[in-house]
């Protein structure tokens, strides 16, 4: 009984302590200017001291690196622990609630931040200070500030509710990402979880100074589209004169095609708005257009344009003649169709009579229903934007295979109403982002992903190590090192396989992923994880691929989808189709030559 009473007593005491700590107000503590002697001796006014570069030089006898500010490795040992080594030998956990606040900096070209945090409950009695570092993501510049308590200070647990602040970090680039790290001191090597990091972005120029004061961030806010007949007129607001923007441009996208329009307003006529016309647009088509200032990395304003179908008719005086000209061919066509149907029925009737005794009534009914004329099913209205398709492949199979993949992408984009993404077509973005980062972003943003499977997918090349020596085959290809990106593309295919396996395990839709082989490859070249998705043989299954991309059925009850120039026989009539056929033939011959050479 007395044990139970003792446990309840301790729980009540603990509850009172926690409530008392919660009632402590969040006092803000800012850094103080202290001398090293005051900090070491524990004098008044030296509770929370900023350590300057001069202090570090005085203590260590050398200048700290400018890029690292006042920070030095193990500052507690160097500045406080020389007389008493036990002072810096206790565990202190990482701070909590790290926040970044923007300061009121008058400089319009940079930003200033102040970092705040709360100390942790754990080890707070042995806390000796904090070290705050700021680094630009993707860069090498580092700013660091060091704050220490005097050696005689021991904080109670209730002090964990107080907020500590750093000095301002000025001169940060606008619209950039930074990582701030707040470290609790002391920091012996063997301890973990002694710091807390936070990634943040500085304000953009428009957020800090207003859109009309930023040349890079400015874009037209007001765009109005008017159509009169086949004439499309677009009106937009001009940039303020102080930005010095003299030219603009417009891009319109539809069915994989781009229409560029250069715009040079005349400021003497109107200084606030300008109108221009969009030409060479197809009737009955929906376009997605962008307008922006003709500057590097300018922000673009997106708007939609729907070009109406113009009904062309004749004059009223000749209204009788066109109507007769239309009715007569329709009547002749109706008569011809009736004659053809009658002849077909006449030819089928004897055959039905000959097999009447051997066919059951239900089979006869099915036969009669199957003999009806099929209707042509038209494709639904054009969508606002074409589906986005990412094509992944292995460049380890050589330039002939890569050429076949590129020609396939050209044919799909030109004649299958699809926007195609490939690393070789976007080499600038690949160089800026990195191959794997580019592939990950495209996998996330694309509507469909098509993996061209070949024998090279089974090869696992080593990462590039800077060796410039090449094989004889690479030298024979005229210096085109197609295998340089084999590591990243094969890694992207492995990533896609993992996504397929994860989606299958979760019962998600797998229609986003597809696999395909050319006729010179084998189905065994398809990786095991990609056999869970739809796979096609090209160019035999071009119509099935079109059906998958646009989510339309090729066949229906009494009707079928007619797609011009996409069948296996008709695609070669197009220039892009002929180029694709020749590229596949070259790849096939190259593979045969290599096979003979191996044998």
Question: What's this model, at a glance?
Answer:
The protein is of the alpha/beta class and 599 residues long. 31% of the residues lie in helices and 24% in strands. Helix 9 (427-433) packs across helix 10.
Report the strand count: 26
CATH secondary-structure class of the largest domain: Alpha Beta
Unreliable runs, pLDDT <50, ≥5 residues? 13-24, 313-323, 353-378, 464-484
Mean pLDDT: 75
What's the helix count? Answer: 14
Q: CA-to-CA gap between the ends?
A: 90 Å
Tally of separate domains:
3
- CATH fold annotation of the largest domain: Rossmann fold
Assigned CATH architecture of the largest domain: 3-Layer(aba) Sandwich
Q: What share of the residues does DSSP label as strand, in percent?
A: 15-25%
C-alpha-based Rg, rounded:
37 Å
Side-by-side strand order of the widest sheet = 2-3-7-6-10-11
Helix percentage:
25-40%
Question: Tell me, what's the shape?
Answer: elongated
Which structural class do you get from the secondary structure elements?
alpha/beta
Main pleated sheet: 6 strands, mixed
Features:
599 residues; alpha/beta; Immunoglobulin-like; 6-stranded mixed β-sheet; Rossmann fold; elongated; 5-stranded mixed β-sheet; 24% strand; 3 domains
Task: Describe this structure as you would to a colleague.
By secondary structure, the chain is of the alpha/beta class. About 12% of the residues have low confidence.
